[in-house]
């Protein structure tokens, strides 16, 4: 990654993590995108089944499922950022998948937060979801180490919500 211009602090978003798929062990990153996306898709379906049927829960869950599909679609190998050759079809699909992920994940969280507020079993999680999105949105756009904050917040939110789903299952 250092050889293609990436730096863990100065420019962590430059070809990362997608650029990992360009190396000798690129299949690991490709598999990670696919597995993570499928798991997110299943997680979204589970949330949809758990939440009270309403516009916010349905729309949020569908957007979240689309985020999972977009994450899995990042498996289309990226093109190196600094290249003199033409863009490949799989590089274009990779970039489109990244845009789709960005356009679905945070709106999904906002809608799911609203659905949590309408369900007494989830009430405190609505505020938590909105705060996570509020902190994640600027850290997504700020370059440098703030990108790691974005990743941490999103992953932590997923873990906490999955933990809550598991607790609800235990109480049934």
Descriptive notes:
- By secondary structure, the protein is mainly alpha-helical.
- The chain has a domain at about 15-125.
- It contains five helices and no strands.
- Helix 2 runs antiparallel to helix 3 and helix 3 (about 90-115) packs antiparallel against helix 4 (about 125-140).
- It is elongated, with a radius of gyration of 17 Å.
- The mean pLDDT is about 85.
Question: Layout of helices and strands, plus pairs?
Answer:
Elements: H1 26-50, H2 55-73, H3 89-117, H4 123-141, H5 146-170
Helix pairs in contact: 1-2, 2-3, 3-4, 4-5
What number is the mean pLDDT? 84
- Helix run count: 5
- Which blocks of ≥5 consecutive residues have pLDDT under 50? none
Kindly report the oligomeric state of this protein: single chain
Question: Which band does the percent of strand residues land in?
Answer: under 5%
What is the makeup of the main sheet?
none
Which value, in Å, is the CA radius of gyration? Answer: 17 Å
N-to-C SSE series?
HHHHH
The shape is elongated
């Amino acid at each position: 990654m250092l050889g293609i211009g990436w730096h863990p602090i100065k420019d962590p978003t430059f070809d990362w993590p997608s650029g990992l798929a360009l190396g000798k062990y690129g299949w690991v990153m490709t598999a990670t995108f696919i597995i993570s996306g499928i798991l997110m898709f299943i997680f979204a379906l589970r949330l949809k089944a758990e939440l009270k049927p309403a516009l916010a829960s349905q729309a949020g869950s569908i957007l979240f499922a689309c985020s999972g599909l977009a994450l899995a679609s990042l498996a289309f190998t990226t093109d190196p950022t600094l290249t003199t050759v033409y863009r490949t079809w799989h590089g274009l699909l990779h970039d489109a998948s990244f845009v789709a992920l960005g356009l679905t994940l945070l709106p999904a969280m906002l809608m799911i937060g609203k659905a949590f507020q309408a369900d007494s079993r989830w009430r405190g999680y609505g505020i938590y979801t909105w705060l996570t999105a509020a902190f994640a949105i600027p850290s997504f756009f700020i370059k440098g180490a703030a990108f790691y904050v974005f990743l941490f917040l999103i992953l932590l939110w997923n873990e906490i919500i999955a933990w809550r789903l598991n607790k609800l299952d235990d109480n049934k």
